[in-house]
Amino acid sequence: MAVTSADRSERLGEQRRALPDQPGVYLFRDSRGRVIYVGKAKSIRKRVASHFSKRTEMRERIDHIESLVVTTEAEALLTEQNFIRQYKPRFNIRLRDDKSYPFIAISLDEDYPRVYFTRERHRRERVYFGPFSSAKRVRGTLDLLGKVFLFRSCDGAEPGRRSGSPCLDYYIKRCGAPCVGYVSREEYREGIDGVIAFLSGRYKEIERDLEKKMFFAAGEQDFEQATVERNRLQAVRSLLERQRVAAEGVGTFDAVAVAVEGTEANAQVFQVRDGVLSDRQSFYLYNEGETDVGRATEEFCLQYYASALSIPNLIVVSTEVAEGTELPILGAILSERRKGTVELRAAERGGKKRILELAERNARLALDQDKLKSERRRQQRVESLDGLQTALGLDALPVRIECFDISNLMGTNTVASMVVFEGGAPKKADYRRFRVRGGEEGVPDDFASMSEVLGRRAAQFEKQAEKSPYDSDRDASFAALPNLIVIDGGPGQLSAGLDALQALRERGVTVVSLAKRIEEVFLPGVPEPLLLAHDTPELQLLQRVRDEAHRFAITHHRVRRDKAMTESIMDELPGIGPTRKRALLKHFGSPENVMAATREELEAVPGVPQKVARELYAFVNRTGR
Q: Which of 54, 77, 92 is the last residue of a domain?
C-alpha cells in the first residue's frame, strides 16, 4: 500500500517527539534508507525541530530520523564527522572535487631519497606534505626545490641510469649526481633536510644555513661553490620576498575563510609561515543543505585538517564564524590530532586580520568566478541543444541523448557501449555495457552486433517502463525514453539499427548515425548525409557523445580481452585451481611474471605446495613458455 504524505508527516512527528533533549548526533534517512544528512546538537530534539521550521528540499526527502546520545559536545562533533565520512550525506558540506588531492612525498626509506608528486600517502616510512588544491602549484614548488636543493629526479630506489654517467640534470645544476659518487650520502641528505625545512615553513632556518654555507665556501677560497650557494640563497630570498604578505612578527598560522551562496561554497586556506604566505589553497564545496558560514567553516576545518599532514598552533577565522561556532571544542579536537595546542580565534586587528580579509575576498571571488563558469557552460550546452534540434529538424530539444558503439578485435570479445548525455552533459550513472552474444567468433560483423544491442535496448525499455519507480530491481536508465539515439558509424550501421529500434521510433525517438571520416550525419530515409560546420556547437556535441561512447566501449573491451588472456594462460597450468591461481597472481602480480619465475621463486609462494611448484616450473619450461 502506498505511503501518503499525511502518513509520513505523522510518523516523522512521532519520531521527533521521541527524540532526546540531550547532546548527540542525529541522522536523516530517505525512503530508500540512505543517510542524506548528519548533524550534531546540544539538544537533539530542539535542533531537529529547527530543520522542520521551513520547507526545504532536504525536509521533503526525510523519511526516517535516528539519533545517538553522547556525553560531550566534542564527542558529538567527532561522531558526526565519522558518520559523514562513512555515509557521504548529500546535504552535508563536502569537498566538491572527487579526485584525491596532490601531495609532495619524500622517500626517506631510500639511501638517496626522492622528492616527488603523488596523490597517495599510504607508505608509513615516507614523509608527505599537503594536501594541496592545485597540481600545477605543486609541480612549480618541486621545480623550485630542485633548483635550490639539487635532489635527484630519477625513478627507482637507487639513483642513476644504466649508462653509469650523470644525466643532464647534473650539468644544468639540478642534481649533485649521487649516482656516480659526486656527492656523498650525508651531503645529499642535508639537501633533503632543507626540502623538509622549506615545506615545513622554517624559512629563517633555510636562509641561515645557505648563508653559512656561502661564507664557509668563500673562507675556504672555493669561490665556485660559494657562487652556487649565493645563487641558491638569492633564489630562496627572492621567492620569500615575493610571498611576504606581513611583518615577520605575525608568525605562523592558517587563515581560513569560507564564502557561501545557496548550494555552493568556497573555502580558502592561507598558510602563513614566518610572515610568508607559503601557500594558498582553494576548495569548492557541496552545500546542498544551504548551511550557514559558521557551520560550513566548522565542517570544512574538520575535513581539511583530518587529511592535512601539519596543523599550525593558530587558526584564524572571521568574527562571524567565531560567534556562531564552538571554537574551543573544535580546537580541542584539532589539538588532539596535532598532539599539541591548537587555538582557533577571530582576528580583530593587525596583520592577521589583513590576511584573513584577503582570504575572504578570494573566497567570494572564487565563488563568483565558478558561478560565471557554470553559467557559461550551461549557456553553451543550451546553444548546442538548440542547434542540434534545428539541424536535425526535431520537434523538441534533445534533452536525453544516447549513443551506441561496438568494439572488438578480429571479431573476438565483442562488446558494446551505451552512453547518456542529459542537458548536454554526461550522465555517467546511466551508462551501460553489453556483451554481444550473436555472431561467429573471429568473424567481425558490426552490423549484426549493432542490431542485436539496439534490439536489447528497445526490449529493456518495454520491460523496465512497466515497473514501478519504487521497485528495487528497476533500471532507471533503460526505463528512460531518449529524445535522440546516435549510432557510431555510417549508413550501414544506421540501417542495421532502424528495424531494431522501430518500437522506440514509434514513440518519437529520432535515430541518426555519425561517421568518423568527415563527420557525416546520416538520417533515416535521406540519401545524402548532413554536413555540419566543424565550428558549430551542435556538431561538437555529437562528437563529444560519439567519442565518449567509443572510449567507454574500448575500456570494456580491453578489460574483457585481458581477463580472457589471463584465464587462458593460467587455466592450462597443472595442479592450479582458483585458489592457487589467486595466490600466484597476488604474489607475482601478473601471469607473465608467473611464467618467468624461477623454481625457487615458485616454491616460495604461500599456499602453493613445493611439489606443485616444481611440477609447474617443469611444465612451463618444457613447453617453452
A: 92
Domain shared by 407 and 547, yes or no:
yes
Distance CA 215, CA 68 (A): 64
**Mean pLDDT across the stretch 598-624?**
79
3-state secondary structure of 488: strand
What are the angstrom distances between the C-alpha of 148 and each of 210, 429, 546?
10, 47, 48
Residue 64 vs residues 84, 86, 91, 287, 471: alpha-carbon distances, Å: 17, 18, 15, 21, 19
Three-class SS state of 585: helix
- Mean of all residue pLDDT scores within the chain: 83
CA distance 546 to 513: 10
Question: Bridge-partner residues for 521, per DSSP?
Answer: 514, 530
Pairing mode of beta strands 24-29, 35-41? antiparallel
- Please give the Cα distance from 149 to 279 (Å, whole number): 19
Contact between residue 271 and residue 279 where contact means Cβ atoms under 8 Å apart: yes
Is 503 within the bounds of a domain?
yes
Across the range 410-420, mean pLDDT stands at: 76
Please check whether residue 438 lies inside any domain of the structure: yes
- pLDDT, tens digit, for every residue of 534-574? 888 999 999 999 999 988 888 766 666 555 555 556 666 77
Alpha-carbon distance of 321 to 359, in angstroms, equals 14
pLDDT digits (tens, 9 = 90+) for 443-484: 567 788 889 999 999 999 989 888 887 777 788 899 999 999
Q: What is the CATH number of the domain that holds 305?
A: 3.30.420.10
- Cα separations in angstroms, 217 against 213, 220, 224, 229: 6, 5, 8, 8
The answer to whether residues 359 and 441 belong to one domain is: no
CATH number at residue 33: 3.40.1440.10
Range of 83's domain? 5-92
Is 343 in the same domain as 492? no
Q: What is 284-324 written as a DSSP string?
A: EEE-TT---HHHHHHHHHHHHHHH-S---SEEEE-HHHHHH
CA distance 260 to 65: 27
Cell of 123: 607508505
Q: Tell me, what's the pLDDT at 1?
A: 44
Beta strands in 202-294 (DSSP E): 253-261, 264-273, 276-286
Q: Give 402-471 as a DSSP string.
A: EEEEEEEETTEEEEEEEEEEETTEE-GGG-EEEE---S-TT---HHHHHHHHHHHHHHHHHHHHTS-TT-
Report d(CA 519, CA 571) in Å as an integer: 44
pTM above 0.90, yes or no: no
Comparison of pLDDT for 224 and 305, the residue scoring more: 305
Domain assignment present for 489: yes
Q: With contact defined as beta carbons under 8 Å apart, do 156 and 137 qualify?
A: no
Q: Which residue is associated with the grid cell 540519401? A: 527
334 in a structural domain:
yes
Instruction: Look at 188 and 144; give whichever has higher pLDDT.
Output: 188
In single-letter form, the type of residue at position 438 comes to G
Cis peptide before 609 (omega within 30 of 0): no
Residues in the chain: 625
Strand partners, 419: 403
Phi, psi of 317, deg, nearest 5: -130, 170
Beta bridge partners of 2: none
